[in-house]
Each structure stands twice: as structure tokens, then as C-alpha cells.
Write a structure and sequence with these properties.
This protein is mostly helical. It contains 10 helices and no strands. Helix 6 runs antiparallel to helix 7. It is globular, with a radius of gyration of 21 Å. The termini are far apart.
Length: 253
Amino acid sequence: MADAEARNERRGERMKRHVTVPLSVRASDLPKRLASAVVMLAVAGAAFAAGGVWLQAFLALVALAAIVEFVLLILKATDNTPFRIAGILAAAIYVIVAVASLAVMPPVLLVVAIVTVIATDTGAYFTGRAIGGPKIAPRISPSKTWAGLFGGMTAAAIWLAASVWFVGSAANALATSSDAGVDPGALLIAAAIGAGLAIAAQAGDFLESWLKRKAGVKDSSRLIPGHGGVLDRVDGIMPVAILVGLGGSVVGW
């Protein structure tokens, strides 16, 4: 009897996964998502523009919210106390290092890091929707495809190469030397770094998706209407911030 009920439950879950949700239902929360996005961009933009203590306070609040959501996910994902303790410590270190990297970045690098993640998400979304194809890890994130990954890498590579070209061209225009143009090798290196950061951003997304799967939830929280939690919004920027921070410390900014 129990086996029959279990089979019926699994069959019902499979049917739910294959039901096509009407467009009107899928788009019903679009106004709420847009309104939330506008508010988030306004608050974040104001904090970055103000800088100083305002930016530090904003990043501290983001870090606190992300750590709390990480803790809640970990508590739901496992009942094993040692695993919980290790996971919470790792999550706290991960978030603190990422946010600390953002806090000390020069404004130019901060913009580059954030827009790299935006370019990655945008390129991955549109390429994945247009091409589709094999999934990277369907049990973790059913919507992520290899085509989307390469689309995100391409978009990030183009963005970073274009940024280096623009900065280099501006510097050459202001310089008194007769050298003109930007070294093609620098553009290739920038493109390679952009592609690598895109992979890191996707890895951060997969990490959170895996944890949410283990916890049995769709979003890290319901803090942001239409968008889920803070962790759902910053999962890609955190590994990118850590890598950019490490790279910046190597070159001595």
C-alpha cells in the first residue's frame, strides 16, 4: 500500500514538471518584478554613488541578509550537526570575503565586476533561450544549458575587452607619447579574463541552486517581491568579487 502511494506521488510530481504553465500565469508577477528591480537598482545605485559610510552600510546589510539566508538553507538541507556547523562557517567566510572585496575595490573595478556579472546573466539567458540544447546539470539547475554558458562567457569577454579598449584609448588620447591604439594582446587577455569570470559567476549560481535543491525550496527567501531573496540576486557576484579582489591585490591596487 505504501509502495503504491509512493509511486502515485512520484507520478504526480512528474506530471507537474511536464505541465505547461500558461503565459498569462507566468507573466502575472511581471509588474511586481519590475517594481522590485527598480527599487533595488535605485537603492544600490544611491549607495554606490554616495560611497563612504553609506556604501559600507549597504554592503553590510547585504552581507547580513545573505548569511542569514545561507544559514536557513543549510538548516533545511541537512540534519547533520557537524555538516551544519561546517556549512555555516564556510558560508559566512564566503560572504564576508566577497563583500569585503567589493568594499575595498576602486570604483572602476567595482563597475567592471558588477557589469561582468550582468553581461554574463544576460548573454546566458538570451543564448540559452534562443539555442537551448543539452543541460549542464539538470538535477541542480534545469534551465542552465551549455549554450547559455558559452553565451554568457562571450558576453562577458566582449564587455571586458571593450572596457580595456575604451580605457586604453582614453589614456592614449591624454598621453603625450606618439603611441596610438591598444595592444591586441591586452584585449585578448581581457576577453579571456571576462570568460573566466563568467564561469565563476555561473558556478556561484550553481552553488546556490544546489543548496536550494537540497533544502527543497525555490528561492533563498521571500524578502524581495518577485525575485526571491538577497542570495538569489548576489549568488553570481560573490565569486566574481573574490576573484577580482584577489587579482587586484596581486597587481597592487
